[in-house]
Amino acid sequence: MSTLKVDTLQSTGGGATTFTKQQAIKTWVNYDAADQATRGSFGQSSLADNGTGDFTTSHSNNFASAEDKCVVGMSWDTTDDASSVATGVFRAGVNVYQKGDTAQSTSALNFQVAYGSRASTNSDGAAYDVDGNYVSILGDLA
Questions:
Q1: How many domains does the chain have?
Q2: Taking Cα atoms as reference points, which of 7, 122, 93, 111 lies closest to residue 54?
Q3: Among residues 8, 36, 47, 140, which one has the fewest Cβ atoms lying within 10 Å of its Cβ?
Q4: 81 inside domain
Q5: Under DSSP, is residue 85 helix (H, G, I), strand (E, B) or coil?
Q6: pTM of the model
Q7: Per DSSP, what are the bridge partners of residue 73?
Q8: Could you tell me which of 76, 45, 39 has the C-alpha nearest to residue 59?
Q9: 112, 142, 108, 107: which is closest to 127 by C-alpha?
Q10: How far apart are CA 79 and CA 64, in angstroms?
Q11: What CA–CA distances, in Å, run from 29 to 89, 105, 117?
């Protein structure tokens, strides 16, 4: 077995490399839904705000599979340090998840942000626009 030791990896054109088969984060976004502004991103070509708490992020490079990927999300209501309706005493915090009623895709991810329970028997939650929405996707690129 050989060992490759380097300080910097560059593409043949001198720019950043694209890791296609390693399990590193391939795309991420920091989206402020209240101001409808992308605060930072990597590997993202666009973001659509589909309505309250409903977003679609499109990737710069397609994933190899629509299903074989890991989506990690987190939100924070930065405008009032979590004292809003989204994080009240009976709430379960704010959640970010892949929207289940949308077909999975290799080129985009439809995700939803909500607080509390969305179950039909306990409807104390709802879709919600918070300032800090952070979504990362790991998986193989095509």
A1: 1
A2: 111
A3: 8
A4: yes
A5: helix
A6: 0.73
A7: 135
A8: 45
A9: 112
A10: 37
A11: 29, 17, 25
Can you give the residue range of the structural domain that contains 62?
Answer: 25-139
pLDDT in tens, 48-103: 999 988 999 999 999 999 888 888 888 876 655 445 555 554 445 567 777 777 78
Are the CB atoms for 109 and 135 separated by under 8 Å?
A: yes
Q: Is the pLDDT of residue 44 over 90?
A: yes
For residue 11, tell me if it sits in a domain: no
Cβ-contact 132, 79 below 8 angstroms: no
Strand ranges for the chain from DSSP E: 25-32, 37-42, 44-51, 54-59, 69-76, 94-98, 108-115, 126-127, 132-139
Taking Cα atoms as reference points, which of 47, 56, 37, 46 lies closest to residue 99?
Answer: 56
pLDDT at 90: 43
Is 102 a domain residue? yes
Cβ proximity of 36 and 49 under 8 Å: yes
Query: How far, in whole angstroms, is CA 12 from its chain's centroid?
Result: 30
Q: For residue 87, what is the DSSP state?
A: G
16 in a structural domain: no
